[in-house]
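Notebook, p. 212. Picked up where the previous page left off. The plan for this session was modest: take the two constructs that came back from the sequencing core last week, fold each one, and keep the raw output in the notebook itself so nobody has to go hunting through shared drives later. Recording the first one now, exactly as returned: residue sequence, then the structure token string.
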Amino acid sequence: MKRVLSTLLLALLLAGCAEKGIIDKGAYELDTRHQAQAAYPRIKVLVIHYTADDFDSSLATLTDKNVSSHYLIPANPPQPSGKPRIWQLVPEKELAWHAGISFWRGTNRINDTSIGIELENRGWQKSNGEKTFTPFEPAQIAALIPLAKDIIARYNIKPENVVAHSDIAPQRKDDPGPLFPWQMLAQQGIGAWPDPARVTFYLNGKSKYEPVDTAALLDLLMRYGYEVPDNSTAAQQKRVIMVFQMHYRPELWNGIADAETLAIARALLEKYGQG
């Protein structure tokens, strides 16, 4: 007994003598006392998706070899313990293949700097030439809110960097679409939203749907963070305006440059700055 106590006392004494910031790794030591200033967190962006499929098919796709996402939330999460269950498919510290070819606020390869959350949702159906989107279940959004808040807090993600998949890939993607409750989430501290009073100020008495110069609007969207290449076609420019409207003016997302869309872009730039 005395020998055990002596050994424990010696270990405590040695631990007390160990240099602060020196970590014993067994075969080597790490000196962590001099941390570089030119270091930045890898995760800066939170990307919201829909799966465009049912849960079982979505889970199979996201655990296959080609694509992946950090989280998958069922449309109606089961609650075996009284709390909604969310599937984590990739550890946050690891890169998932959810964004694809993408760009946001001056940076491409958004997979490298983001966490992806997939929501089970059928996406859109086309009828009479028009897209009709599937609403999100309240239970799913209720599960998303605490998860998104935790991620944002862990990595200090800025509101303007909580984005739709369509924001970062406007030529390819529509998700999560115009029925996703961005405004409500922004009120919960998740994502960006313009101040209504500033939108009214920039609207300056004009009719909401009064046409405006497309180039002027695209310049604002590019400054806010969207990719608008110089050689964009008219159809590609319309796509950028459309996905912006899906996010910030979901009641009308026709891709046409109008006074309200311009006012929203100005209010966002004023509030969150340029990308």
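Okay, moving on. Second construct, recorded in the same format:
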Amino acid sequence: MLPMCDTRTLSVIRTMLVEFYYDLRSQPCRAVYLFLKATGIDFTPKVTDLLKGEQNQPELVKKNPYHKLPLIDDDGFILVESVAIMRYLAMKNNVADSWLPRNDVKQMARVDEFLNWHHLCVRKPCVRNKIVFGHFTKEPLDKERAKTLREEVKKFVTHIGDYYLKDRPFIAGDEISVADISAVCELAQLTGIKEESLYMENEVVGAWFERVKAKLQPHYDECMETFAAFKKKFEEAE
């Protein structure tokens, strides 16, 4: 029988949870959030509104002078960047090996390969598409530039399908990993500007996207509910 904990002990236990600062409209924040939820890692939520500039509060700037999210504070240990955060929490909490396949050197290399590639080849085009297609600037829409960016997205989507998913259901193999979470969160950003056809029309990638979503439910839909406001803003700006 476990010993009873008094109120003070429970309070200490609560404060020991990792503090997670995030805004679910951000792709990397969603990736960490979904990872935490899917693996059952408890955390203290610190919702931070990027559009209101809450990341610039003195308390947060002391933790991260880059003024960026996501960010975790694990009893004074500060860590930023979604990939580093997921790696750290996976190892600290000894999550199922499939998420971060440390015991399979080839699968781990595949996860690393994708995560190192996706920053420039997936994330960057998706972010630029958000700006150009979303009409969130006062400049007129450059149709030629928009066409170029669409082709960029189609190119990396084809690469994901032909290279990463050609003979396996998930990026690293038969099970979902942190690489799949990062990839889906980047592509999902395009739904906010009604450009999801750029990846869903690829048969292999579209099927993989639905598999990953199913693995992350009900938390995936929860994340995208927050993202719905972003989509509405885009529709109103059209």
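Notes on construct two before I forget. Confidence is low (pLDDT under 50) at residues 7-14.
Flagging for discussion at group meeting.
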